[in-house]
Amino acid sequence: MENPSHLFSEFKPVSKADWLAKIEKDLKGKPLDDLLQNIGGISIEAFQHAEDLATIPASLPCSNNWEIGEDFEVGGDLKAVNAKVLEALENGVDAPRFILEKSLSPDEISILFKGVDLSIISTHFYLNNSGVNPTTLFSNFTKMASAKQLGLSDLKMSLNLDDDAVAGEILGHLKNIGTGIKVLTVNGIGYFSESDTATELSKIITKGERLLHSFSSEQFTASFINDHLQFSVAIGENYFLQIAKLRALKLLWSNILRAYSIDENAVPLIETHLSPSLQSDDPNTNMIAATTQAMSAIIGGADRLTVLPSDAFEKNPSSFSRRIARNIHHILQMESHFDWVADPSAGSYFIEKLTVRLAERAWEIFQKK
Fold first, then answer.
1. Which domains can be identified in the chain, with CATH numbers?
2. Residues 193, 356: contact at Cβ < 8 Å?
């Protein structure tokens, strides 16, 4: 095709005023305000136009190659858990997360990770009990990795620490060693709200900024703390709202980074989990909902995504439901090619406007606090 620019030469641009006149005609006397929508506590017009954007927004810092997560409850039979982990890794998972109720000895760590190649995955620990000693866990895990000829700079891992004093001790081991280890996690799962998403976002950045401020010192720069920080966010069922929420979080944290004189594009990794509070007692319904939730997380720019098995509400997901949860990732990657484009919603008038409205409202709430 020699001159593709001529393809649209016969189509005259349609102004916003022209569109509104057509809409008013179709409404047959009903006011335009009837088309206002309330999404996540934000009032937004259903009709958006290019004229509403002063400039074409730049794409947000975003990866198009998300990690595939899966959760594993670490109970008494560590060999059984190891078998589940190996099966998951063989079927595409590359970011397993271990839910711990107790500390693990060096021998238990070795059993849990037998046959696991730590150099090609990221490994995550969720300490679900105050009795789990993070320092001991970190030490035992890194010693096990060292026995596999892997140093700290070779590892990608995370802990869900926030204001725990031991986080500073672990951070002290990471000076000048890359950014693959995320010690501090801004856990926003408990703030999840589809009715007031701006407040949810404000709470997340408030907690994140507090961590950035409290751990920054002469020993640790704010930039160093930001490098070892990650966000954990719940994903709901409102498709466009969840896309805009993750995009708004990136905008909000860029503002925080500018205040600390850090590169505004250095937004920490965002891990996402489908909100368990929204699961019904019907696995088939959950399976369908999980697909659209996963899509919104990926389009919004999630760096890591864990899809809930459709029977997670029963507390003991079956092998089948775990496989289907993994396959949602594979369909979106290998068949739908969601990993081909970074920030694919950039330039969408409606999503851009919703992103900005959410960010502005969340920032207003944050400043009041």
1. 67-368 (3.20.20.240)
2. no
